[in-house]
Here is the input.
Amino acid sequence: MTLDKEAVAARLARLDPAQRAALAARMAAARTGPPLRPRPGPRDRFPLGMDQERLWILDQLDPGSTTYTLGFGLRFHGRFDLAAFTKAADAVVRRHELLRCGIEAEDGVPYLRTHEDRTADITFADLSEGPVEETEERRAAFIERQVRRPFDLANDPVLRLGIADLGNGDHQVVQTMPHSFTDQWSYVRLNSELLEHYRALLESTEPQVPALPVQFGDFAHWQRSCFAGERGAGHRAFWREYLADVPGRLPLPYDGDPNSSDHTGRQYNFILDKDVAAAFLAKARQARTTSATAMVAAYAALLHEETGERDIVVGVPSVTRGQADTQDLVGFLLTNVPIRIRLPENPTPDQVLAAAIAASAEVAEHREVPFGEIVEAAAPDRTTTRYPLLQTMLVQLKLDDAVFFTAPGADVYANAVPEGISSMDLTVAWWQVDDVVYGRIEYRTALFRPTTIERMARRLLQLLALFADAPGTPLRARRTPHLPEVPSVLAPAPDSPAGVSGPHGLADVAEVWCDVLGTSGARPEDVFFEVGGTSLLAVRLAHRLREAGFTATVKDVFTHATLGQLAKALLPRAARSPVNRAQSPVGPLGPEQELLFEAGLEKVELWAHSYVLDASEPLDAGRLRAAVDAVVAAHPALSTVFTGTAGHRRASAGSVWEWQVAPSGADVLEVARAQRVALDASSGILFAVALVPGDQVVITAGHLAIDGFSWGVVVSDLARAYRGEPIEAEQAGYLEHAAALRRIDPAAQAGYWRAQLAAVRPMTWTTGAPNLRGGERGFEVTVPLSTGHGSLEAEAVTAVARSLRPYTDEVVVSIMGLGREPLPGLPRWDPTRAVGFYSSGYPLHAPLTGGSPWNDLAAVDAALRQVPDGGKPFALLHCAADAALRAEFAALPRPRVVVNYVGALRDPGAGGEGLFKVSAELAAEGNELTERDVDVDVAIGLRTDEVVLRWLYNPDAVSEAAVQAAAAQAALDLAAMLGDDRADARVPGRVGVSEAGMDQLFEELSRIRREHQ
Here is the structure.
């Protein structure tokens, strides 16, 4: 008999919550395996739980980290007895053997060791002194200190209680534990017991706590038995099939590098309107599903809108307390369940909800499988920088009376303890307390800007209303799925085992490798996790390699996937030669510099920019000159010397710059113009500073030596150097960067860039008159900007591209990029400190759909994300070693419109520690008789409450009416895409609620519960 999985899933989806719960209970009884009983053998040593072992392995990857520390807060208003509270905590530790344990390892295999004399780690701080209005600041700082204390899992007590006396009968208790020893529900049980012991001590009675027929060690022993043999193999087979061909990384709206290893986190809080919450929960009941599944559906809808993907995996935590005797245990009894939601094209909320219900039903029988088992079955690519299989989680908890606490003589309630970390890229958590629904997004700050998270939170609340009120309305995808990936030419080549020799070489590593895996041989290209390796075996391999004399960590095994790569990485690190830090004395120009020299300018040095800085204090000429010396020494590009002629130019580091003390009362703009006249690339004078007596500084730099991003670095460093602070010199400067870049062959991307340029068409708005720089004119249009927006590059490019359709058959624009992508072989180059001409333009064929602005936005966003290596190699094609390639691209047509998205319009003096503020600036002047190489430049920047579009063109050469009309249309489309004129812009709830605001909510909910008791 063949099982029709779709038919079964459909039948399961029609069950109401009560029927679903009954079925789940029956299935749980069928799959629980042997009964849970006290384990045999010694009680002082026992294995880790299977999910607990996974978190221990993660701790080994980054020892000393707080990424997997979990916090819980209690706030007391009224009586608080520290001595009784301490005794109560010790009583809880005595009841639960896991709270007296540490994790030790033998031959790389971890186990739990019980320490009978171990108690809770309790610290007390008197924070009652100080202004009352600063109480919340002191409380927040205390919480931060507590959560940032790392745990030594072998030696530290695993239950920490930090207690702060805030004055006037106000006490904050901060509980922290390693996540491998607890979960949120364990914290609820722990605190119920803790406060019951506390009550009994204060009232001199016996505590009323549930009996514990088994301990966590018994559960761990049972769990391993339960998932061994055929039962475990069956679960693994299900997950292997369920997650087969699952898409790779979900293209979340990252603002930073998703490969970042920084797990610093932040929380963004929100509260849903009560009427919307009631309607949404009613919708879940109408669909015969749980509120948790409905929340998963709403989040999947948001992810679809953000990514355009229709095969979406969301992690959902699932308790592993199917055995009745585990209900009152404290420990990590939790697993993560990947819910795979497959959506139709242009889905509606009703269709998303149906898909989520079906997906939840499909995994119902496998929800207690340890996540490590799921990972091993699915065998995803391993990396140390991100969680396996899952990028994002959805947590939903319905809090009942058991979560509300009481204590004699005090009002006590649970409150939030922000840990300041995020193990996932994104986690959305919801809590329901009676008719109140509130939540938060926890996110990695290295990956997302606060404005991006605010936008997503606002839209999530809107979607909950849409699910309830207009469930047949198609969702609006902001993006389409990624286009085919274009090969990178900047990515480092894979490591090779070549050159691995010596006393600790490939053969030595291979011997340990084979011993751990139990194989008779290995090849350098073998991938550890594809030839039998598991996370636990990775720990053992690192342990065995250290025993063999290598300096090896668990992270090495995850980072260097093959045997050859691992062997190369483990060459005795102490014997490595220091990196040569010498600046290249003479080298090639950067591609952007070459193109600027070839632009036909009458005097290339006049292509410069000047700033007038007003100082907040009178400036000393000697100190200022010394500060400029320090800045030029730290950033050698500012004094680059250029020699040679076209095709044979070379650059070298110089040390000359122009200094002047201008006459008192001098016209600062005239000073800037005089500085430009003195610039001379052949002698290295590309940077000039003048002090106008009093408190003004005029700075001019040629674009050969600087770009917009670099200006912020220079002004900030100048302020620090003037105040006597040290500034960090670039370890690898522009000359080294240019040399490394010019060694790269861009030919692999030639086809992609050729296709972009093939769509270039003439613009019909030209007049036929000469397009000279001397005739340039400019104007601005603005669009209102509400809060909650991250980068608007895709929206800006889409708006400009749509405005050009009346004047060309195909829209191709030139995009200006930062040009600061990492280069192979240049690890010491810091893009955040680099000063030079890095910004680089590249062509983009805008794939306009002929539909709405939002359809075009999705297509343009996908095209922008397909751009390889940030567009940097395009300029490199003009300097390629292959003469035929150079000639081909020199002859291809260029886009006639430049779009430069500069982001937030910041004062370059803003980084100057309050010393400088820009009062005037002077853009490039001169070269009036030089032909412009484009028709229009559009620069887009963000102010606090508006988007600014600056249009620059020559009205003699380009129709003024056409440019004005294009600017007006771009503003209209941009306003539409930003949602400022859309009815659904209203957010049904409060967003951006502070931690103090959430604390007030928790206090109010606790008060209401007490009144109804």
Remarks:
- The chain has 29 helices and 29 strands.
- The first strand starts at residue 45 and ends at 46.
- The two ends are 55 Å apart (CA to CA).
- Residues 494-504, 572-584, 980-984 have pLDDT under 50 and may be disordered.
